[in-house]
Amino acid sequence: MSEEVKKFKITIDGQTAEVFPGTSILEAARQIGGKSVPPAMCYYSKLETSGGRCRTCLVEVSKGSEADPRPMPKLVASCRTNVMDGMEVKNLTSDKAQEGRKAVTEFLLVNHPLDCPICDQAGECHLQDLGYEHGVEGTRTEFERNTYEADDLGPNIKLNMNRCILCARCVLTANQLTETREHGILFRGDHAEISTYLNKALDNDYIGNIIDVCPVGALTDKTARFASRVWFTSPMNATCKCEKCSGKAVLWMKGDEIVRVTARKDQWGEVEEFICDTCRFDRKELKFWNIEGPRHIDRHSVISLNHYEKPKDELRVLDNPMAKEISEKDEK
Ligand code: SF4
Ligand code: FES
User: Which domain holds residue 134?
Assistant: First the structure.
């Protein structure tokens, strides 16, 4: 008979959840939902060993656990810190965490060009969101930014290293999803960059998924680059008969034209099911697809502003009975 595992209780910004031991603070926050969920630029729940690189998910642990209630002395990366029973965490309610995130945003933007007006990722870029929420008005650095020429990574993918934040998601995706990995992070520290080995081309099947996991506009689809601003397109759920992947994709349409094909992403901006390169790059005609209907865009993005309902960005308590109780008490 299997023994019942005792769940751990965690409180984040006053909302409580019960999670299995081994759950990270970030995943627990996602279970609660709403605005208290920390942003994540490198963690990706579908990729093993992701996280711990960007520090955007920093939170304050004001109570370590029931057994040891001392607060943690420094902000912690919520994607890499596991929940302890009775832990209390502050995200939105912590000035320290907000200040920390602001500093991380400034750091991520030290070399990143502010080229949103010409970047294909604009409108669906996590760094752009972070910049709006926590960015400072001016730069405090005087040195020249690291600059690189845009590079072709194989027939369908363009690398704009100036925009890369070295989150390593693309490297993990290539490692864990394709048969051979031909790119990685070369050099160290300030010299670190994404590059292929000895000018190899990235043309494994499924390699196109590195475009979807990239949180910024460093990796773009050459078959769709500069074709349209994303907010002028209509995302449609569509399926095709594919012998390699599930064939479930999103078609980004302009009238009857398919501008771009991507995988479907969940509310955290993570791919639900990775798609093959044939669906992504070669099926740009309607004859291949069955269109199911408009795609709901969950994130607070300009895409959903133009096409669908207003973003629901109030503090949501979802279906968490404990969180509901607390918020009802607060309302009284
Ligand atoms: S290219 Fe994109 S996914 Fe790859 S490390 Fe840079 S930011 Fe991350
Ligand atoms: S998401 Fe946690 S460190 Fe990047």
Answer: 114-139+150-226
